[in-house]
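residues and backbone:
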Amino acid sequence: MADLPATEQALRTNACDIAVLPYRPDDQGLRVRHLMDEQLFVCVKRDHALAGRTSVTLDNLNGFNFLLGSDLGFWSDLCRNRLTASKLLVQSDDFALAEVIRQSSLPCFTTDVAVRMRYRNIGNSRVSIPIEDPEVNVSFYLVAHDSPKIAKLFG
């Protein structure tokens, strides 16, 4: 797991064989396969000011403080860059983060993929609201340099 610039650099310099990118690269000599789509949601307590909304934007969220996991790849950078008026309470341990989420009134984030996988049990006291911004509704791609070995993987 690395940030996006480090992942792109590792791919360019052949330091990695295969990478997952949140965009479809146009580079020649790369094999690209759609991997999955993911949508970001904000999770708030049922009595939160945003709880009645059917959707929100990052601009709507800017200024609220959030609980956030660490090592989230480009999601972490996106939160820091777009939620500049917000404070982010970052937890590196998933168990600790889930426990703090259950006990706190601070909003947090999840994705449709995490919900389907039942990645983190945060209890029933929260509602998940989709975030509309296109940069948080992402298609991920499996990317590798073209080679006979990779051709078999990519079909």
